[in-house]
Amino acid sequence: MSGSTASESAVGTATEFVAGTQKRTVCYGTFAGDLSDPSFRFRISFVEHDGRFEMHSHEYAELMIVMGGRATHLTDVESHTLEGGDIFVINAGRRHGFDDAQGLRLCNIMYDPEQFFANERDLESLVGYHALFQIAPRAIAFRERMHLSSDELARVSDMLSALKSEQEGKADGWIVAARYQFLALATYLSRTYTRQTKNQATPLIQMARVVSYIQQNYRETIGVEDLARLAHLSASQFQRRFKQVYNVTPMQFVTNVRMHAACELLKDPNYDVTRVAMAIGFSTAAFFSAQFRRHRGESPSHYRKRHFSARILNETDSHEVISQELE
């Protein structure tokens, strides 16, 4: 924001409802302007729009739940009508806006995906999670969107109200409560989307099933042909579409999932390198070590030692602080 005032840097304003009152809220689209706490990049707001909200983008992701009203949602490549019950995610850097909004009531949840979804293995096993939070936000157009029934929207509304109350009340432990309430909301939406699309075979859902399958079966031998059959595509079509969405090949994605799991297991003192290799689907520790070094730039043993050294240092520093406070 150097060289600009706050008003010049703002991407827009909206009517926000806080503690039962209305106020004009400025949106900057930046972590510094909208989510200033780097340790907890999260904010929930209920806003209302009328007319037009200019095209803009954010540094963070945004989960948007349409509570009521209507509008035309705009992106760089399309426009479509929004109505109560629609849910979608806007990724960082993606431009969007609204036109002809008529009492459009939104719940906006601004968040840093790395702080909330990293290592959430149970979520990653759900088709709906990949469809809503991962694949749809990467798609060129919002042709497939999640829509809640009136009963489902009522349940989500209760969850949102509880989450908003935690943020406004800021009682002791509110950050922990808000974190887990947001994950509970994401889980409910993911389960609901999985159930809604059980009998669908759209391109988005097929790709979501493929990624969910990888997350659940990365320990097994997985081939491109197997994944292509799951997506009902030829191997060449599947590889091309997969790379368009994830910017890596399917086999690179499988390796990334395995290496991520390996990093977590290497932090466990009960797992040596050989046991980690077997646990994530490698036939030998030597082959696993070579792949790990290629992927991470260091050996599994070095990664393990570095992690334990850092943990011991942190524990020592914590004990020293406690001892000084007790003296």
Q: How would the global form be characterised?
A: globular
Low-confidence stretches: 1-7
User: What structural category do the secondary elements indicate?
Assistant: alpha+beta
The CATH superfamily of the largest domain bears the name Regulatory protein AraC
Describe it for me?
- The protein is an alpha+beta fold and 327 residues long.
- The chain has two domains: 187 residues, Jelly Rolls (Sandwich); 108 residues, Homeodomain-like (Arc Repressor Mutant, subunit A, Orthogonal Bundle).
- The chain contains 14 helices and eight strands.
- Strands 1, 2, 3, 4, 5, 6, 7 and 8 form an eight-stranded antiparallel beta sheet that branches.
- α6 runs antiparallel to α7.
- The protein is globular, with a radius of gyration of 22 Å.
Give the gist of this structure:
With 327 residues, the chain is α+β, with helices and mostly antiparallel strands. 50% of the residues lie in helices and 22% in strands. It has helices at 6-9, 31-34, 113-116, 121-124, 127-135, 150-169, 174-196, 203-217, 224-230, 235-246, 250-266, 273-279, 285-296, 300-326; strands at 12-18, 21-27, 42-56, 61-75, 79-83, 86-90, 96-111, 146-147.
Offer a few descriptive terms.
single chain; 327 residues; alpha+beta; Jelly Rolls; Arc Repressor Mutant, subunit A; 2 domains; eight-stranded antiparallel sheet; 14 helices; 8 strands; 50% helix; 22% strand; globular; disordered N terminus
